[in-house]
């Protein structure tokens, strides 16, 4: 019998009794990620079951992948409505839901709202055969006369977020539309020199992206590499993360989703008249079925008619009372973790608009119930019961790209679209809380303070170390140095050991992209995101909606940049033309609220993040800021913060347009913002022929 099957199921759900640490899994007997979950299943060619938190299963998938030469990996799936249940901690019960989701091989029927993990290696060709089986009778698919009013929720496409692949044709072309009943094959040719790392895939049809991703339609895509570093080239971090006997580190893929389902009657456009309780939280009665069907389920909630007279301004996600899910499960218990054993946790923030700050704390409570009550009461539970010291997390990669140095952190901040690979070793046995921490306004999407939320538990077994404990950092360094001594090529072994030995744990030998910080520039760009109220444009039935614009920055207007030339997305308009091979520096800022900047195809390297109040570069490792450690790092999604009064931080990045030409997009990764028009179209073009005019003149003279 698995650990999950042995769990107690009680009326109250999660009850923690004295020191016995009996955890009742509240979702189902499958709510616990036991180490043997799906392990008996032979891994498919590149596809792992959605129960991918099991280290054993990941090792099996990885070994199967690396035992074959690069080739073709094919996955066939359909998008359709799927019936299921999601646990609701506010009631301690399961809510019935009906959501758009992927159906096909590798989808766990017990957790249908999280897609399987795609495992690929450099040089692979990934064929994704997608059939759209959503109903053709889509009430949202009406002509509003404005492309930036969300629409056509039953059409779709696919985006491989962060992959370095072509944006054209049937590859990562997000301008394609797959209508109900259509079948299409996306073909992604992974370059032989593609970095190994953590990426993800999700729908990206303008006007329907947020609605589909908020249904759970976002899955991991892992590039696994085995290239060793050499004297004149870097290697894959995967080759270092091995024990001396060659066994790889256990790993856990954790995809965080925020499924904003609601219950209530639907209008003629399919939008839900959301059912709420007296305090405004979303409720579903016993016979109700929760769905994601309209953009009134996203954005901001504003109530100016409160008894206290203080306006109630929160995000719709906060008002919903819903919980962030880990790999499709709300409040799971992760089993199979051994005391002191180093594991690689691959975090993926696949939510639409919420910031998540993940930490691990030892549960040191006695007896209490988490279920029931409001969000404040549940946040108080975390403060009262999850009181152990925060476990160190050693960040080795951001957005799938290896860091130039390890960042030791106690909290992993994940904005929408972010990934962070961290090494974790739990210091003693027992039960640990997985916490989404509170945070101030200027550290969060939507500029809203947020309360703590309990995301789940980690159950750690095994004997405590009776010997005097070295620090977590010392243990991590010992592991890496032993791996370097055993597995790194002799010509570079001493160099790599030196990089790993100091107070700063350098990963320079494993960084895929050469730094652009000191290279000559071919040009500059500026960009700003902003929202503002436009009372004349009824974007949603029954009321006005903000305009969501992208513009340039006026950097000469004073100490702070100002937004100019701002507009919403316009179909067919080319907003920026970029030259293949050029190196550019971009200056970025967000106004009114924070926005995550995401540019497809080519990642960016962070140069600085300047606090407008102090003028300090808070991206430096020594800054002590929540943004510390980002300087010099490569990312594909970058949060642009602002402060409490709207003055923007100035974020400077550099990028180079490598290899691919074609048309693609940049946008805010608050996905409802993207659907409302916060997006631009880019093209990468061939460099001009320096002899073109000469050739033309010669040809002209010959004709005459």
What does this structure look like?
By secondary structure, the protein is mainly beta. The chain has 3 domains: 34-256, Cupredoxins -  blue copper proteins (Immunoglobulin-like); 328-466, Cupredoxins -  blue copper proteins (Immunoglobulin-like), CATH 2.60.40; 523-685, Cupredoxins -  blue copper proteins (Immunoglobulin-like), CATH 2.60.40.420. It contains 8 helices and 37 strands. Helix 5 runs antiparallel to helix 6. The protein is globular and about 70 Å long.
Secondary structure tally: strands: 37
- Uncertain runs with pLDDT below 50, 5 residues or more? 1-44, 537-544, 693-704
Number of helices: 8
Strand order of the largest sheet: 28-27-26-30-35-32-33
* Through-space gap between termini: 90 Å
Strand content: 25-35%
Cα Rg: 25 Å
CATH topology of the largest domain, what is it called?
Answer: Immunoglobulin-like
Overall, the morphology is globular
Which sheet architecture does the biggest sheet show?
Answer: 7 strands, mixed
How many domains make up the coordinates?
Answer: 3
Helix content: 10-25%
């Amino acid at each position: 019998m698995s650990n999950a099957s042995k769990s107690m199921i009680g009326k109250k759900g999660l009850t923690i009794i004295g020191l016995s640490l009996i955890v009742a899994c509240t979702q189902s007997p499958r709510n616990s990620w036991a180490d043997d979950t799906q392990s008996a299943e032979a891994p498919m060619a590149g596809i792992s079951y959605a129960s991918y938190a099991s280290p054993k299963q990941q090792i099996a998938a990885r070994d199967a992948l690396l035992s074959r030469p690069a080739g073709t990996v094919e996955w066939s799936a359909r998008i359709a409505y799927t019936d299921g249940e999601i646990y609701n901690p506010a009631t301690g019960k399961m809510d019935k839901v009906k959501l758009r989701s992927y159906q096909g091989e590798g989808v766990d029927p017990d957790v249908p709202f999280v897609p399987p993990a795609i495992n690929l290696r450099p040089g692979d060709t990934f064929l994704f055969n997608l059939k759209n089986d959503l109903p053709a009778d889509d009430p949202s698919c009406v002509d509003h006369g404005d492309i930036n009013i969300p629409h056509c929720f039953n059409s779709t496409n696919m985006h491989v977020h962060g992959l370095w692949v072509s944006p054209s044709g049937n590859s990562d072309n997000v301008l394609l539309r797959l209508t109900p009943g259509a079948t299409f094959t996306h073909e992604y040719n992974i370059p032989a020199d593609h970095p190994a790392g953590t990426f993800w895939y999700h729908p990206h049809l303008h006007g329907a992206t947020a609605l589909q991703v908020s249904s759970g339609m976002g899955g991991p895509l892992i590039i696994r590499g085995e290239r060793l570093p050499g004297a004149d080239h870097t290697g894959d971090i995967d080759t270092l993360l091995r024990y001396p006997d060659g066994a790889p580190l256990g790993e856990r893929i954790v995809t965080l989703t925020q499924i904003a389902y609601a219950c209530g009657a639907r209008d003629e456009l399919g939008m839900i008249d959301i059912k709420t309780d007296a305090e405004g939280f979303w409720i579903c009665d016993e016979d109700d079925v929760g769905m994601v069907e309209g953009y009134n389920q996203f954005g901001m909630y504003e109530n100016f008619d409160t008894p206290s007279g203080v306006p109630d301004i929160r995000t719709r996600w906060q008002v919903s009372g819903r919980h962030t899910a880990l790999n499709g499960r709300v409040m799971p218990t992760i089993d199979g973790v051994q005391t002191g054993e180093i594991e690689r946790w691959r975090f993926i923030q696949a939510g639409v608009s919420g910031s998540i700050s993940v930490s691990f704390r030892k549960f040191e409570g006695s007896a209490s119930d988490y279920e029931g009550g409001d969000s404040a009461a549940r946040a108080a539970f975390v403060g009262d019961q999850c009181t152990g010291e925060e476990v160190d997390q050693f960040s080795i990669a951001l957005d799938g790209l290896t860091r130039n140095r390890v960042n030791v952190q106690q909290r992993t901040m994940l904005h929408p679209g972010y990934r962070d690979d961290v090494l974790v070793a739990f210091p003693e046995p027992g039960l640990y809380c997985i916490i989404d921490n509170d945070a101030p306004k200027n550290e969060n999407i939507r500029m809203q303070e947020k309360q703590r939320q309990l995301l789940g538990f980690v159950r750690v077994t095994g004997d405590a170390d009776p010997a005097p404990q070295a620090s977590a950092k010392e243990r991590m360094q010992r592991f890496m140095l032993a791996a370097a001594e055993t597995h790194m090529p002799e010509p570079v072994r001493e160099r790599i050991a030196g990089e790993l030995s100091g107070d700063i744990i350098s990963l320079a030998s494993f960084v895929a992209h050469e730094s652009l910080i000191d290279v000559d520039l071919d040009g500059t760009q500026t960009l700003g995101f902003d929202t503002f109220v436009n009372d004349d444009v009824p974007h949603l039935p029954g009321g006005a909606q903000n305009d969501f614009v992208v513009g340039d920055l006026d950097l000469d207007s004073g100490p702070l940049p100002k937004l100019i030339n701002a507009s919403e997305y316009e179909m067919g308009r080319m907003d920026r033309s970029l030259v293949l091979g050029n190196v550019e520096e971009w200056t970025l800022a967000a106004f009114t609220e924070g926005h995550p900047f995401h540019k497809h195809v080519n990642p960016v390297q962070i140069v600085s993040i300047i606090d407008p109040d102090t003028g300090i570069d808070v991206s430096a490792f020594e800054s002590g800021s929540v943004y510390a450690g980002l300087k010099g790092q490569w990312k594909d999604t970058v949060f642009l913060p602002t402060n409490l009064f709207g003055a923007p931080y100035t974020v400077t990045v550099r990028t180079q347009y490598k290899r691919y030409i074609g048309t693609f997009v940049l946008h805010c990764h608050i996905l409802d913002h993207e659907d409302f028009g916060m997006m631009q179209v880019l093209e990468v073009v061939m460099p001009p022929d320096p002899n073109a005019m000469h050739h033309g003149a010669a040809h002209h003279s010959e004709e005459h």
